[in-house]
Amino acid sequence: MTSGPDITAPGATGPATAARIDALLENRRGLLVTVETETARWQRTGAALGRLDEVLARLRAHRDASERLREVLGGPGLRDLRSRVAELLDQYGHAAARFSRGTVNLGVSGQARVGKSTLLQSLSGLTDDQIPTGSGVPVTAVRSRIFHTPGRSRAVVGLHTPGSFLAESVRPYHALLGLASAPETLEEFAHQRLPDEVDDSLAPLLQRLRGMQRGLWSYRDDLTGGEREVPLAELRGYVAYPTQSEVDAGEPARRYLAVREARIECPFPHAGVDRIGIVDLPGLGEVAADAERRHVAGLRHDVDAVLLVKRPLEGMAYFGAADSRALALLEEARGLVRRTGDFVFIVVNRGKDDAEGLTAALLGHLASEVDAGRAGRRFSVLQTDAADPHAVGADLLAPLLAALADRLPVMDGDIVGGLAERAGALADAVRAEVAALTAALAGLRGHASAPAEDLERQAEGLREDVAAELGEVVADLRAEVLGGFEDEHFTAAVEDAYADVSRWLARGLGTAGQDRTGPDGAGDPEAAGAAGDEDDAVHRQRWCARQLRQMRVHNNAAPVAADELNRIRVEIGRRFSSVDTYFEERVRRLHTRVADVLGQHTGELLAAEDGTVARGAEALGRFRALLDDGYEPCPELSAAVAELLALRLDYRTQLYPRIRAQLDGLNLEVLDPGEGQMRSQIAVAVNPAGVEELYDFITVRAEQAAYRTRKALLRDSVLPGMVLFAAVEQFEDALIRSGTAGREFRRLARTYRDELWPGRYGGLNSEHARFAAVARACEEIEVALRGGPGPRPAVPGPRPAVPGARTAGAGAAGARAAGGAQAVEADDTEDARWRV
Amino acid sequence: MTEELGSGPAGEARDGTAVPELPGGEAGPGGGPVRAEADHGGEAGEAEPDGEQEPAGVRGYVMTRGVERDKDYRFLGAAPAALWWSAYRDHADTNYPTLLVEAGEGGWRAFVSGIPSARRDEVSTPIRFTLALTGATAAAGGPGAPVRLDRVVRLVALWLEAFTAQEGRERLGRLLDGLFPDEAEVVELRRRRDPQAARTVRERVTALLDALDPPPESGADAAGGPARALPAAWFGAARSEQGASAFVARVRDLLSGEREGRALVLNLVEDQAEAPARVGRESLAVLAVDGGPVRPQPFAVTVPGPLVVTPPGPPVETVPGPPKKFGPLHRRALLFLATPAGAAAMVLAIWYLTHRHHGGKP
Amino acid sequence: MESVTTDADAGPVFRIGMLGPSRVGKTSLVVSLLTDSERLLGGTPVVLRAADSSTRARLRLRRQELDGGLLAKKFDTAVMRGSENLTYFELDLKAGQATDGIRFSLLDFPGAWMSEHERRGSEEVRQWDECRDFLVGSNILIVPIDATVLMEADQAAHWQSVPAVLETLAVQEIAESWAGYRNLAPDEPALVVLAPVKCESYFADNGGYRDDSQLLRERVLDVYERTVELIRLNAPHAQIRYCPVDTLGCVELVKVEWEPSADDPGVQRPRGTFAVRGKGKISIAGADDILGAVCSLLVEAQRKVTTGLAAGHIASAQDMEVRGRELKRGFFRHVLNTLNGNIRANELERSGELGKARALRAQAQQLQDAVEMIAGRASSGRSKVL
């Protein structure tokens, strides 16, 4: 709780006003939706414009692009549009910030000595200890936001990092002073030699900079970034300039320099202020112009109205040049709000002791200078005694909030309407630019049309060549499958896994090395290797000793037996998954072989920009992207390639379900087929002989399970070949013989004729993919502007349901497949796999 | 017993291997030294070059198998010319420990089976060794012979030990494993049938004998006393010390030429009635692996059987030379046999005549 | 060679040949069949015994070995030692108290003799000839087949080795000769039993957990297809049966390793490791099917012979009767023949023949009953007539 004056101002702000403010804040959420939709639309549009820029650059960069083409495509309009889009997005961002705020924020601004701090105190109930007042010198150095928070009093300061401090606080001074090099580190700043003398007008700036440099010791440690919660009692040290007496006493501490802003939460001594925030805006006219502008930029986000405080004091009772400048800045901050008077309120702080005459003079001057001769024409002028909280509540808050309740929706509407207007204009500009570009390209297309007949012949030839070679691949795999050809690599992979399991078992049932590396070391090859010098018999002894202890703990062998069998079962299953390496290799080889076939006949098509040639799956992926990106897309061919790329062979999903049953014997209890009941396979005595017996039993069972697993895998040795055969046969079928294959090959030929047959045709074909890309980027822009779907529209034309097509392909794989094939229930649909 | 041998479906076939060489020749003392023996199993080139000195008068053959499934039991290098022990197929199953010693006419032969090797075959069954040995008796042999013959006696004693103690056959097996340590060599010798391979195996057998300690003289004397008191034909139990020592003493007598006849350890014989018939007045000592009296018992009856099942064998590897003549012992046996045979022939003739008479009518 | 030797007293002697390569488990099967016959033939009046003391002793030796091997609790494929030489088992099958025993011999031999390259020495050639004659001339041919070889072959190299390991060509050659020989005597019993052994791991009906019996059958028929064809072609009347056997029942295959043969290039030989299942109590399965088939075939043959003999006796009784009438034709002849006792002798002879015929018929009936009882016995369900 604050220790400030306990003031309540009943009736100052009516409950009706508070309710209206609540309602309008709620309504703002609705506006937020619009703003967000628009933001997304323009983000997409911006991205599409970026892509257009990019594909235009690629088209320009093409070897065969003519001078004229480069000229046409080189226009600067696009860049301008992109910056305008960025600007618009910025404004939408501010609007979104405004509409998503949960409070109505009042900015309080004014030059030194006008009683701004006093007013803040009256509004917030804070005292001198937190918000210092002073006469004649500026006291608050940091922008503070104060929120009404019943039942809590605290402050949170946001601190600079060294980087942000240097960038935001130090560099502007350097810039204004025209100093050559701004410091990059605090150390540099600390030892920087500042000029002794500057132009008189800049002297105060230099003075401040020196102060910052000298005071570095006091705030250096606070440059930590992030936020820090500070008791209100200590807040002053963070936000206030040093007092004159401190300055006189020597080099004062300047911790405020480390603070970006402060957020203060405390209960306001006024009614109906639940959703009011007050933003202290220091520095108008205090800091350099850049700093002022920065403050104003902050206003846009943060405040719904600004109170510009004036005080009718001697020498200040008029609206001077500084006031005009401040007002101009506030005008800028108003943004899209149409009426300045809605945004800026002039507060005349007339203290009890102030001279009436000066007040009248000020009001008169205001009316003539600011309100174009008639008071209240442009601005509302509110008079109050800032030092009197009651007066502030009645004279200032009540009318202010009532006015805001009326005018805030209007202001919000102004903003939304203004943004919509700007967006409409920008959309028109973008459309015009795209239309111009499309027209220019259309004009160019006439120039380069391919000799159609020759191209068709070439396309047909390409198809035949690819067909012939893919046919060989298919034939090889068919021979492998139908001839019962045994894949010795598969056999070797299985045998290796089996040997690995056998070794593992022999070494104390896989516990070798455990003593060193803990229970997880069982599978650690290094540990196993280190333990390799020891005899298997030693491991056996160790196992027996360890398990005997366990058995004695339980006074029963069954838990040990069950645990060990479970452990070993899981490990054996896991170890056999090493055959996946082989599977990956097989799929990789197939991809490579198919990609090589394609690569051989497609000229430079699969070569990257830098001339490197991709292989295997990468090449197929590239091929697929090219098929999709063509001016005339080839959906069938693309789908065929995609399908081949999605081919997976793996132990866990395909083989494991088939061999899992082989591990069933590795359980303490097994189903007795005779009695139809579970029965324990072994019971041993809890003694050394018993544990030895258990070891032998587990070893035998584990060896048997490993052997059976190996056998089941080998029985399926034809399976990998079958899956590959089915896949490549389906690929070949789809690529060569599908209904649209011929057409799509011709499309491919037209689209990429210069890459497929480099040098055969002169000039860039208008159907070239790079043209297509430009056209598509233009389409994307239009779609984005219409608020259409995401940045990358779907390829036109239906894409076949991939999993379905695969299943069909696998079904056609061969008569042999049918016998052993079993449908495995699909549960991982996200990644369609070959099912056998 | 007799019907089993003479009749039955496989009779003819079995007779083919059961035909023993008739004891013969006056190859007694002064008869041809055993070194003149030659295998004549029919394999070309098996005959040893003349003048090749037989190592110390004992010719040995070894049968074993390889580890692989199809490398079944087979003699290594060379096989004895006759599988004379197959005549005992109804009395002994040579797949199981069997020991047969026959002596006569200055020669002797022995068959020793069921010596366990430490090797195991492909299906992990323990592999065995079987030995077949022949030689001249001490009386007929050269100067070195008695020493070697002592070792043969020792071998018999060791082999028999297995029935009463743990050691014995295992020790023989270890020795043989040491002599044939290399599986590849075993497989190779198994395959070969040539003099070189035959000589290699014989040398190993000689080495085996040399590796055995000489039999304790005192033991022989101790055993000799009561053993010599036994009749020429007796029946005992292999599992009894008495039987074993008497048997060893008998083998010594046979090998030295003091006796002619047979000493047999048979595993299909449980009582005397099942034992092979004694032929004539031969010495016959039989130990039953299962059963048999603890104290060797004289044969109750000398069966004046009409059949010669297994006459005491001389070395079957007959010495090339003049045909052997019947010795006095055998002449008497023959006479013994001829009488009932003649009577039977008479009966047959009468029966034939009467039946031919009746045969005219249906 | 005559397969059914008719002995004046003992009646016919049948032959059973075991035709399988070395270490396939011929001996184990023989021992299972013969020492467990009481249980296997339980519920039938058929009794199988060793016909002589040496066979009894032989069986005892083997049984001891089998039991000893199982007591060890941990053993590999075979508990039975390999054979060094020919082994005959002489057996006696009695199918009723009043019937004569049926004699049969069963031959076991070192299986390696089946492979030609293993028969180089004269000793093997001679013994193999004996063996082969026996096999070709036998009435019943049992072909033990190592089931693990067929079931555990899972690579091309394994399959290429199967013929060498199972000696399928030798089996085929002998089966063909056998069938040709059988065709010469179509009235005699003829049976071939394809008997996969060591089937414990492939059936779920005898303590096992997995049922691969269908696959086993397919593989056996696949590998022996030509053999079966040749038998059908050459001896259409011969019965062919498929009888898988758990030789021990209480073991289970752990693993099989195939190792390249030392001197047989390209051939890999399987080496199996077995573990005792449960308490290690022997539980032979499927052997009763073989024994049942063998017994019913033999008993049926015996019945035929007995019926034939009875018919012979009746025929001669009828002859006697005719002769009796002849002896009484005319007074003088009647008186003379009465005086010299011819009539009485003839009458005695006739009634003797009739008595024999009656006894034989009774025997035949008993045999008939026995056959029916064997046939009616619940089968394991494993065996199939091919």
Automatic annotation (TrEMBL), chain A:
It comes from the Bacteria. Residues 790-801 have a biased composition (Pro residues). Residues 511-535, 787-836 are annotated as: Disordered. Residues 522-531, 802-824 have a biased composition (Low complexity). This is Dynamin family protein.
Automatic annotation (TrEMBL), chain B:
Keywords: Membrane, Transmembrane, Transmembrane helix. This is Uncharacterized protein. Residues 1-58 are annotated as: Disordered. The chain crosses the membrane at residues 333-353. The lineage of its organism: Bacteria, Bacillati, Actinomycetota, Actinomycetes, Kitasatosporales. It comes from Kitasatospora indigofera.
Automatic annotation (TrEMBL), chain C:
This is Uncharacterized protein. InterPro entries: P-loop_NTPase (IPR027417).
